[in-house]
Every structure is written in C-alpha cells, then in structure tokens.
Amino acid sequence: MPIEFNEKNGTFVISTPQTSYISAILEDGILAHIHYGGKIARFDFAKDVFKYIPRGFAAEDIPGGSTETIPMEYPTFGCADLRRSALHAVYADSTRTTNLRYASHRIFKGKKPLAGLPSAYVESESEADTLEIDLESRNLRVTLVFCAYREMDVICRSVRIENISSEAAVLKNALSMAFDLPESNYDFVTLEGAWAKERHLSRGALAPNSEKSIGSCRGASSHQQNPFFALCSPDANEKAGEVYAFSFVYSGNFICGAQVDQFATTRAFMGINPFDFEYELKSGEVFQTPEVVCTYSANGFGQASRTLHKLCRTRICRGKWRDAPRPVLINNWEATYFDFDEDKIVEIAREAKQLGVELMVLDDGWFGKRDDDWTSLGDWEAHPRKLPGGVARLAERINALGMKFGLWFEPEMVSPESELYRTHPHWCLHDGDSPRVQTRHQLVLDLSRPEVCEYVYRSVANVLRSANIEYVKWDMNRSMSETSAVTAWRYMLGLYGVMEKLTSEFSNILFEGCSGGGGRFDLGMLYYMPQFWTSDNTDAAERMKIQYGTSFAYPASTMGAHVSAVPNHQVHRVTDISTRGAAAMCGRFGYELDLRLLSDEEKAIVRRQIELYHNIEHTVHHGEMYRLSSPFDSNVTAWEFVDERQAVLFVGNMLAEPNGRFWHIRLEGLEPDALYEAEGKTYRGDVLMNMGLIWEAKCDFYARIFTLRKI
Ligand code: DGJ
C-alpha cells in the first residue's frame, strides 16, 4: 500500500515508486517528521529513531523534552520550538499559543481538489492515495493533507485550518508546509531574476544557525523570485546527488526557504507570505492553504526536473490543449507595437500563412482608444479607427486566409484614462485617499470584490463570443500596491474563479498566460492556461539562460518562445535566424516580427523551421528533457528531448572561441544498441551517450537543433 498507518507505533509511511515520507505520533500526541528521501520498504519502528535529549536553553514543553529539538511535521507559534513556525494565530482572548496534538486520520484512494484553488489532479482514483491527519488545539483543527502519486515520485501537501472555537481567530501565518530534515549540509537553489531576465539559476550553501528564504510581496509570484526551491547535497549535479525540490501551486505572494538550527537540522518551508497577513477566521470557518508539490531525487537535478515536468504536463495542465499539438503562431507585438490597423494585420498574417504559420495573434492596442499605454484598459471594445469592422471582421479575414485568430487581453487592469475608471473609480486597489500609484500608467482592478470579477468575466466573455477567437493571451503588467496581504489573497481566489469560468466555458480556446513576460510563471497559472510567455526578452542568447533556468521547474511544453527581429529589441544583439529558431523551437514555437521584411533566403529558412518544428514538437513537448551543459557555468548550452521515436538536441554557445576546443556533447536517455540518424550520418546510441557529438564555438551567439531519428 502506498500509504500505511502502523497502529502499534503510530507511524505513517507514504511511499512513491522511489521515495518514502514518514511521520510519527509521539506519546504526547505531537506529530514528528521522521524521514523524507530514499525509499524505505519496511519501517516498523519510529520512536527510537530520535530521542528527546534535554538541551541547554531548550524549554521543556513536553514530558522530558522540548519541541525545539524534535523534527516537527507542522510547527506552531507559541510553544518551546522557537524556530520558524508554520502556523501563527491570535485568539479572541489575545492568546497566541497553538499546541497541536494528533486527533484522527483518514487514508483514501484518489486526490480531492482544493476548494477555490488550483491543484494537481488525478484522472482515476487508482493514480494516487491521500492521507489526511487531523491535529487539534483548543481552538483549531488543522488537517495536514499528503497525497502520493503511484507512478510519480510526487507528494502534494496542503493544509486545512478550521476554527473549532466559538469565537473568531486571526491567522497571521498559515504555511502549506514546514518540516524538519535531519541534515544541514545542503545548497539552496532558486530561480531569481527581473523583468527580461527571469528564472536565472542561483545556488548557495546553507549556513549554521541561519535561514535562506525567498518570496514575493508583489501580489504575483513575480519576475524576481519564482515559487520554487530545491535543497541539494553540495555534490549534486544533473545526474547525481540528492535533490529535494518544491514547487508552489499558487500565483500570489509566497515565501519559501530553509532554516538551519543549532543542532544542524534544516526546516524546509513554503506557503503564502506571512508579511502583513491577518486573516480573520470566523468560528466554524475553514482556511484552505495552496498546495506544494514535493519531489525527491537521489539522482540529481535531471531526475527531479523530469518528475516535475511530467506532473505539470499531465496533472497540472488541463483541457483540450494539454495533449493536442498547438498551432505555430505569429504575434504582432514586436512587429508593430501600437501602430497597426486591420489591413496591416491581415498583410502580416498573409505573409505568415505563406510560410506555414497557423495562428495570427493580435496583441495590445486593439481596443478603446489605445494608441499607447496611457489609456483604455478596461474598455474591451474594438478601437474604432484601427478595427472599424470590429474584432469579428478581422477574425473573419484571418480565417479566410486559412489561419486561426487570437487576441490579447489585460483583464485585471484599468487605465485611469478609460470609461471603466470614470464609471467605477473605486474598483481599483486603493488605500483611502492616498495617491493611487500607477505603473505603466495603470491601476489594478480589485478582484477580491465579486462585482469586479463579474465585470472582468463578462467583458472578456462578450468579446470571445463576438468573434471566432481561438487563442487568448492573458497579460498582467504591474505589481500590486495599496493593498493588504489578505486582499491580495482574496484577489487570487477571485482571479482563479474568473479563470476557471472562462477556461471551462471557452474550452476550445488555447489560453496563454503572460505577465510582462514571465512575471507569473507558476503551477497555479498553468492549471488554467497550459502555456506562459516565458519572457519579454526574445534574444536567443538570453533565452538560453531563461529557458534553461525555467526548465528546473517547468517543462518546455509550457514555455512560449518566439523568433523576433534583429537587432533584438531588448538587448540590441544580432543573432542569425537559425539560432533564434533553434532557441524558440525548444518552447511553444512562434514568430514575433514582421515577416514581410525578411529576405527571400530568410523566408525559406522560416519555412524549413516550421517543417522541422512539426517534426520535433511531440518530442519537445511530451518527451523527457535532459540538460547537458549549463549556460550559467559554461560557454556552451545544451539540452535534449527524447521520446520513443527520436532525440532532439539543442546546442548553442555564447562567445566564439578562436582556435578553440571541441565540445563533446554527450547525450542521455538513448538506447545504447539502437542506431540514430542525423544529417545523413548514423550513430549508435552508446557512441552518442559516451563520446557525444562534437560542437565548436565558431561564431558568437550561435545555436542549432539536431534531430537524431531512431532507425
Ligand atoms: C507585455 C507582454 O509581455 C508583451 O508580450 C506584450 O503583450 C505587452 N505586454 C503588450 O502591452
């Protein structure tokens, strides 16, 4: 059984194919964390695994011991455990101590959805098993939920907190996870960045008696830090070493980190950011935390990422577009910015169609009076001068070319210069009479309010009903200000509600998320929208880093990636069109330039790129990914996707190396005895894996795709 309870010694053993997670109820009812890591096939004792040892300065709050020296499963504020707590509540009588003790538990097949929140799912009950453990204090019932997949090394965790007292309590902190590992010799790995350089890899050792944590208080998961972290042994690399990886199924403010205590144990934690959080939990009310996805790999980062990819691809992303091939698109943003009209879009589309592009996406500027970014967000009606025949006529003309039509929205925002703002000036986030802080000349609609959610739903749905729209880009271009953490939390619930309604009603539409590029790239968004615009930075060399870093937590199938013009609009770098194509083909492929301006030779390359992409898209989006060489510590970047039919290898370099070395790019995941054919040559799998293909860094910022077809 994947989840077992041993009544004799009060232990819970949760198993996945290669991992075990063990907790135990101690004599006094405290739930202790015993093990997470490599698989333990039989575990029949618990309480002797560690002993209560009296320690100097550790208060004795349990018979003969202290919670400060126990590996806790869900630590709370107010007891002798003075490490970071997972739960901090203030009660009606001003007390703030929560002593949780085991009350009951349930084990059942399957996995339940979380009320109002995105979460990993199952398609049949036999895919996963769930353990719910109820812990109780005077005022609260706290249910720890653990769900283990049978075919994936994934354990999902979340917490329900119910006020069982007769008076309201205030939750100041309610994390989704905090548990103690017995070691501290770990590196802390995160994906940090900024606008146009999202999810760069960062790695550093934990230090004694200190904490490393990251988070966001921006109202979105953010460009700066992604809601993902890993703890790994110092020797961990792509193929070897221990890796614990955690990914949050949530798109708002978060915190996560690792705290090392005086006895060299590490508390790993993740949840809603407690900064400014004060949630009034009424008598009888339940607070549901978002879910954390956990995986452990004894074989390095490669395996941890492949597990997260599979979960995301198959049990986070949903709907028709989860498995279906997605159209190659052209987006007009970098081709025209705000300067377009119906005819110009049709002409760009006509050229694109001739080269093999399947979907024309009209970006920002099609509505209200929007000729620049000062106006009209919230007024979702066609711009009378640019689209005199409305969105419907443009969609018809695009369809008449034999292409699908897609449209950009930024539904969560309002421009002060708009009809919506004139009618409802209080619908935006604001703080009394304080000046309303603008970013990109816009304010954030307050989606914690049901009437605002209803407006957002209705205005988007009306446009979607009015024309043949087969793709939506859902953008979000600023952080939140003038709000409280609880409003930001309710905002996310409101937003998820709107997204659920729209994506189920318009289930044929392919939705792509965006937030000034990848400012909200997380499992929460991917639950509603199966792809996300990875970054506003479309430079191929920068994309090597961004897509490499992103792949630690998210599969290529979720990363929007386009070929854009040169000199590149973000970094002014010139790269050849094949290099740009190679990088973009490792994500959801598209173009973002005026294809009419290309030379005939370049157009022929585009045609071939699209043909190649159709040949490799299944492998890139459904195959296993292996990272082979990192742009963060090498001049050469390489990664590979493998399925039963072929391997697709991406190799690129930064600067050219004069009179340089040969780079042997050694592939992985092939069949040693099988033959693979690439560019007219045949190689054995073991040769490719042990000797590799040779790459020379001959030109600056140069990349190619190699297809190795199994014959
Ligand atoms: C930010 C997005 O990331 C861009 O791709 C583009 O859609 C602009 N917004 C439009 O305002």
- Give the amount of beta strand, in percent: 25-35%
Which regions contain 5 or more consecutive residues with pLDDT less than 50?
A: none
From the N-terminal CA to the C-terminal CA, the straight-line distance is: 41 Å
Rg estimate, integer Å? 26 Å
Shape: globular
> Any ligands, ions or cofactors bound here, and which?
(2R,3S,4R,5S)-2-(hydroxymethyl)piperidine-3,4,5-triol
Helix content: 10-25%
User: Major β-sheet, in short?
Assistant: 10 strands, antiparallel
What count of helical segments does DSSP give?
Answer: 12
Main features:
31% strand, alpha+beta, binds (2R,3S,4R,5S)-2-(hydroxymethyl)piperidine-3,4,5-triol, 12 helices, 711 residues, 8-stranded parallel beta barrel, 20% helix, globular
Short recap of the structure:
Strands 6, 7, 8, 9, 11, 12, 14, 15, 19 and 20 form a 10-stranded antiparallel beta sheet that branches. Strands 21-22-23-26-27-28-29-30 form an 8-stranded parallel beta barrel, surrounded by 4 helices. Strands 5, 10, 13, 16, 17 and 18 form a 6-stranded antiparallel beta sheet that branches.
Structure description:
The protein is an alpha+beta fold. Helices cover 20% and strands 31% of the residues. The protein has twelve helices and 38 strands. Strands 6, 7, 8, 9, 11, 12, 14, 15, 19 and 20 form a ten-stranded antiparallel sheet that branches. Strands 21-22-23-26-27-28-29-30 form an eight-stranded parallel β-barrel, surrounded by four helices. A hairpin with a 6-residue loop joins strand 31 and strand 32. Helix 6 runs parallel beside helix 7 and helix 10 runs parallel beside helix 11. The longest helix has 23 residues. The radius of gyration is 26 Å and the shape is globular. The two termini are 41 Å apart. The mean pLDDT is 97. It binds (2R,3S,4R,5S)-2-(hydroxymethyl)piperidine-3,4,5-triol. (2R,3S,4R,5S)-2-(hydroxymethyl)piperidine-3,4,5-triol (DGJ) binds next to loops.
